[in-house]
Design goal:
The complex is a heterodimer of chains A (110) and B (845).
Chain A: E1 4-9, E2 18-23, E3 26-33, E4 38-43, E5 45-46, E6 51-52, E7 58-62, E8 65-69, E9 76-78, E10 94-100, E11 103-107
Antiparallel strand pairs in A: 1-11, 2-3, 3-4, 4-10, 5-6, 7-8, 8-9, 10-11
Chain B: E1 5-10, H1 14-24, E2 32-38, H2 59-62, H3 69-72, E3 76-79, E4 83-87, E5 92-95, E6 100-102, E7 105-108, E8 112-114, E9 127-129, H4 133-144, E10 148-152, H5 156-167, E11 171-175, H6 188-200, E12 204-206, E13 211-216, E14 222-226, E15 231-234, E16 236-239, E17 243-245, H7 248-252, E18 263-265, E19 276-278, E20 283-285, H8 293-307, E21 321-325, E22 328-334, E23 344-350, E24 355-361, E25 368-374, H9 380-389, E26 422-424, E27 429-430, H10 431-439, H11 445-452, H12 462-475, H13 492-501, H14 507-514, H15 523-535, H16 542-545, H17 550-553, E28 564-566, H18 577-589, E29 593-596, E30 602-607, H19 612-621, E31 634-639, H20 653-664, E32 673-678, E33 692-697, E34 700-705, E35 717-723, H21 725-742, H22 749-755, H23 759-767, H24 775-787, H25 792-797, H26 800-803, E36 821-824, E37 827-830, H27 833-838
Parallel strand pairs in B: 1-2, 1-7, 2-3, 7-19, 9-16, 10-11, 10-16, 11-12, 18-20, 31-32, 32-33
Antiparallel strand pairs in B: 4-5, 5-6, 8-17, 13-14, 14-15, 21-22, 22-25, 23-24, 24-25, 26-27, 28-30, 29-30, 33-34, 34-35, 36-37
Helix pairs in contact in B: 1-8, 10-12, 13-15, 21-24
The chains are: A mainly beta (110), B alpha/beta (845).
The structure holds siroheme, flavin-adenine dinucleotide, iron/sulfur cluster and FE2/S2 (inorganic) cluster.
Chain lengths: 110, 845
């Protein structure tokens, strides 16, 4: 069962880009696409660059998949699945996330 | 026991070297011990591009010999040693240094020497010729103290020499004995048009002039007196009155030579001795001396084939040429003077655009015999193919030289060429050979050049090669895709135009009208940069925020561990002690790593994102500004101390550097831009390695453009000389605006220039002569950016909303626990993987 917890307010998100939140000791990158009313959550750690930076990458889409490009070495990660487009064996944790009553909620279990 | 025969080559010039390279690539290479005599102090270099020496190419750049070539192939080269005697009975060659070598086969590749008319005074000081690197060094030395230069001879080479003198800053005259310029290649009307164009460029042309004496000048070193009584004062006299084959050594051993010189050869390039060949400019074939490289290379190939036992013969060569002389296109093909029986002539002349074209066609109007083009040689490739491949002409041949009418296309597309068509005459590369290589997987011009050598000689075939390649690639289903990414089916230049013409102000509206999807990390920063170049909004304005690359988004460069660098602007590298102290104090307070950069400023590294605003606030309060070290924009303008302090300084390089840096700071561009200003030719600021380099001279500023350090260094090209500051700035405004408009994404000025059709000359024609009629617009575009400059850090600090982003977490004030430093040489640096293990990090993902 999903255990939703409030993380921040929707106003804390940056339109068409990312911010980072601390949830249960984990760094979570939150990406916001207001036009689609979509929000995505991935772990903030870039396994290639070995640094907590993914929230500062540019977002967009490649072949219809929503992606973030790492700011360090530009690998793309699918925002829904965390799968790296350049190397599908590399998968970063993706979290369930939703917007409820002006807040952003995340479920770290599942 | 060696069974090898000895092959001796006399002369290591363009053709001699080409012969050696073809020989070692052939099956005959194992049969011969190869020895060559090279009179010059260096092995073969590219004489065809000799003039590039004046725009910064060095002797090494011009070399035609790969490093290690002789060693690798076991060839003995006697450098700086001249063969002085051939003894045909004993089959030996004796050199000036006293070496005697027995040969089995001998190849003469001694080239030619410039003819100097025996006018009294022809050997006076500063009476020079134009053939070797040493000649050019003498010219440059003479030009230093001179004001006037006269070229004797208005042929192809003479005009090139005139151009060189002009670039050296002299006032130039061309004196020609014949009634017109380039008499060999051009007809009367073509010559007249060329003359007008060249005179418009400030060169004085005197035709029908016979020099009778050179003597002491009054204002200049020399004075030339002409048969008609006129006189001309000049510092330099440069003879370019034709070439004479170097056949002395052949003459002395009684080989047959022509009545006006030249070693007589047959179709196998054999001289009157069956063991001695002659190739290149020293050889006389069928009464002809060829003063071009391509026929020389064809002779070299013939000899290699003959030595390998293959049938081959040299049966004459095409003398067609296309050149750009002082920015004027000139081309001549085949029988330009219509000497063929029954030939028909068509001419087209446009006095307003200064274009002259002439076609010479066979009596039955089916074959093109020759052509002359002045002012617009764009049809050269097509016409040459009609001519040398005997392709049947269209019904109205004149359509080939008339300006294209919209309803019909007359160009001979690459598809119309037969597989046997010779595309590159320097290296005898046919269309068939090119197609083969493309089929084998070559898809870029670079690969094609490396594989076939096409377009690596005179370069005249480059445009045709490219169109053959593109058409073949298209046929094989390779789409030549120039779209920037999947979201926009346009090139950067097209997007620039769309934004400008439709006055588009945001990424979203561009995406809505011209794109698809959501964008990506390619198109967003690209559009962001173009929007900035146009409207120069604050880059962190809400609607532009999400377009910025990470570095621009945080106005700092991200380091490997996710921290940032702080690099404030230090214009021209000049800084007061007080300001230096501020940098030291800030570095100390925030425990940053400090280092001097290669751009004459100070970097403070290792700042976590949440400290950036506080650090910058202190810096701004002390008077610093953003250094844009994070942006694709102007970086630094390096300077040397210049005339204020340096005993050699000619002008105030620091002052100019500061003025220029302040002028262009903040300009967003396709890639970063770097400048440098040196106070004299000692060049301590290394200006010739910059996008824009400026060097002070006694007579003004010299401007160099499109240099690059970095991954693939490129020497900058001399663009204009002796400029006053106002003109200098005008040229830079125009050039940079033009770069911003037309370059590809992440293309430095060096690559931009190298990919530009027409290269430096074209760029000059746009920026200096306003060929496109754009200059006013380009200047306005720049002025707008200058007028709307703001320091991005100052604007950010003043805006609470913008500062909200400068936290590691949106919901916590904790720091990133993955950022761990260790001490080294008294400062911090990021811990490496091993060191991290000892710090017991909280597990991450
Ligand atoms: C800090 C500095 C090295 C130093 O410690 O001295 C530096 C640091 C970086 N350079 Fe550089 N370059 C620095 C001077 C140079 C110079 C020397 C110069 O400017 O005189 C060059 C060669 C000159 C030139 O550009 O033509 C230089 C050629 C490059 C290149 C290769 C560019 C090219 O055209 O080949 C890159 C890669 C790129 O831009 O794509 C690069 C890229 C970088 C990046 C941005 C790499 C990156 O993406 O992280 C480095 C950022 C470090 C950081 O964390 O801020 N850096 N870099 C220098 C900053 C100068 C300044 O004050 O702004
Ligand atoms: C400025 C300039 C521009 C040119 N532009 C073009 C152009 O655009 N297109 C074109 O096709 N051609 C051009 N040419 C002509 C081209 O350079 C020549 O056709 C070509 O160099 C001929 O090659 P070669 O080997 O026969 O002679 P060279 O290149 O002159 O080589 C002969 C070499 O032999 C050496 N030598 C002579 N005698 C001896 C000896 N006894 N012992 C040892 N060494 C000896 C000489 O020192 C010389 O190094 C240009 C020439 C010049 C000078
Ligand atoms: S040379 Fe390489 S390592 Fe050094 S600063 Fe430049 S980019 Fe970084
Ligand atoms: S024709 Fe000279 S390089 Fe191709």
């Amino acid at each position: 069962m999903a255990q939703w917890q409030d993380v921040c307010s929707i106003d804390d998100l940056q339109p068409d880009s990312g911010v980072c939140a601390l949830v249960d000791g984990q760094q979570v990158a939150l990406f916001y696409m207001p036009k689609e009313s979509a929000v995505y959550a991935l772990n903030n750690y870039d396994p290639f660059g070995k640094a907590n930076v993914l929230s500062r990458g540019l977002i967009g889409d490649i072949n219809g998949q929503p992606v973030v490009a790492s700011p360090l070495y530009k690998q793309h990660f699918n925002l829904q699945t965390g799968i790296c487009l350049e190397d599908e064996t590399v998968i970063i944790p993706a979290y369930a996330v939703r917007m409820e009553n002006g807040s952003v909620q995340i479920s770290m279990t599942e | 026991m060696s069974t090898k025969q000895t092959l001796v080559v006399i002369g290591n010039g363009m053709v001699g070297q080409n012969f050696l390279a073809s020989l070692v690539a052939s099956s005959a290479k194992d049969d011969y011990e190869i020895i060559t005599f090279c009179e010059e102090p260096r092995p073969a270099y590219d004489r065809v591009h000799l003039s590039a020496f004046f725009s910064g190419k060095t002797a090494e750049d011009l070399s035609l010999v790969e490093p290690g070539f002789f060693e690798k192939h076991g060839i003995t080269i006697h450098m700086g040693d001249k063969a002085v005697k051939i003894c045909r009975e004993s089959k030996t060659v004796v050199s000036q240094k006293g070496i005697t070598i027995r040969y089995d086969k001998l190849v003469l590749a001694t080239g030619s020497f410039p003819f100097v008319p025996p006018v009294p005074g022809h050997d006076r000081p500063q009476c020079l010729v134009y053939r070797t690197i040493e000649d050019l060094e003498a010219m440059a030395a003479a030009a230093k103290n001179g004001k006037v230069g006269v070229v004797v001879g208005g042929g192809l080479l003479g005009l090139e020499a005139a151009n060189a003198l002009k670039d050296l800053g002299l006032q130039v005259h061309v004196v020609e004995f014949a009634p017109r310029l380039m008499a060999v290649q051009l007809d009367e009307a073509g010559g007249a048009m060329l003359r007008r164009k060249i005179e418009n460029l400030g060169v004085t042309v005197h035709t029908g002039k016979n020099t009778s004496l050179i003597t002491d000048g009054d204002q200049c070193v020399n004075k030339m007196c002409f048969a008609d009584g006129e006189e001309l004062e000049t510092d330099i006299v440069l003879f370019s009155a034709g070439i004479r084959p170097r056949d002395d050594i052949a003459r002395d051993c009684a080989l047959e030579v022509g009545p006006r010189g030249g070693i007589v050869i047959n179709n196998q390039c054999l001289t009157s001795d069956a063991d001695i060949y002659a190739i290149g400019e020293c050889a006389l074939w069928n009464g002809m001396i060829y003063g071009l490289v391509a026929p020389g290379y064809a002779m070299a190939r013939t000899v290699v084939a003959d030595l390998a036992g293959n049938a081959a013969s040299f049966t004459g060569a095409d003398m067609s040429t296309k050149l750009k002389l002082m920015g004027v296109d000139v081309a001549s093909i085949g029988d330009a003077h219509a000497k063929t029986q029954g030939a028909l002539v068509y001419t087209y002349q446009n006095g307003d655009r200064e274009v002259y074209k002439r076609l010479v066609v066979s009596q039955d109007k089916k074959q093109l015999l020759g052509a002359v083009l002045v002012g617009d040689a764009s049809g050269y490739g097509t016409l040459l193919q009609y001519c040398i491949n005997g392709i049947e002409l269209p019904e109205n041949p004149d359509a080939l030289i008339l300006p294209a009418r919209s309803d019909e296309s007359v160009g001979l597309g690459p598809d119309a060429l037969p597989m046997s068509a010779q595309i590159c005459s320097c290296y005898d590369v046919t269309k068939g050979a090119i197609c083969q290589v493309i089929e084998a997987g070559c898809t870029t011009i670079g690969e094609l050049k490396a594989e076939t050598k096409a377009a690596t000689g005179c370069g005249g075939c480059a445009a045709l090669l490219k169109s053959v390649m593109n058409s073949e690639l298209a046929k094989q289903g390779f789409a030549v895709n120039t779209d920037i990414c999947e979201h926009f089916a346009y090139t950067r230049q097209e997007i620039f135009t769309l934004i400008s013409v439709e006055e588009i102000k945001t990424f979203d509206s561009l995406l809505e009208t011209h794109g698809k999807g959501r964008g990506c990390e390619i198109c967003k920063p690209l559009v962001g940069s173009i929007l900035s170049s146009h409207w120069n909004d604050f880059v962190l304005k809400t609607e532009h925020m999400a377009l910025q690359d990470t570095n621009d988004a945080f106005l700092a460069n991200m380091q490997k561990d996710g921290t940032y660098s702080v690099i404030p602007r230090i214009t021209g590298g000049e800084i007061t002690p007080d300001m230096l102290i501020v940098l030291g104090e800030v570095g100390k307070k925030y425990k940053l790593y400090t280092k001097l950069t290669g751009g004459q400023r100070v970097a403070l590294l290792g700042a976590p994102v949440d400290q950036l605003p506080a650090i910058w606030k202190e810096l701004i309060d002390a008077g610093f500004e953003s250094g844009h070290a994070y942006g694709k924009s102007l970086r630094t303008v390096k300077s040397c101390v210049g005339s204020s302090w340096c005993r050699y300084g000619v002008d105030d390089s620091v002052g100019l550097a500061i003025e220029l840096e302040n002028r262009y700071k903040g300009l967003r561009s396709p890639h970063k831009i770097k400048f440098a200003v040196s106070g004299c030719t000692r060049e301590c600021a290394e200006a010739q390695s910059k996008d824009i380099g400026i060097i002070a001279t006694e007579s003004g500023w010299n401007l160099y453009v499109c240099g690059n350090g970095g991954m693939k260094p490129r020497h900058a090209d001399l663009f204009a000389t002796s400029l006053d500051k106002e003109t200098l700035i005008k040229y830079i405004d125009r050039l940079l605006s033009f770069y911003v408009r037309t370059a590809d994404r992440l293309q430095r000025t060096s690559v931009w220039m190298e990919n530009m059709e027409g290269g430096l000359d074209y760029l000059k024609s746009v920026v200096i002569n306003d060929k496109l009629g754009l200059c006013e617009q380009l200047e306005q575009q720049m002025q707008y950016v200058i007028d709307t400059y703001q320091c991005e850090w100052k604007a950010t600090i003043a805006d609470e909303l913008k500062l909200k982003r400068f936290h590691h977490f949106v919901n916590s004030n904790q720091a990133d626990d993955n950022v761990v430093f260790v001490q080294e040489r008294g400062q911090i640096r990021p811990a490496d993987d091993d060191e991290r293990k000892h710090f017991k990090l909280v597990e991450v993902a």
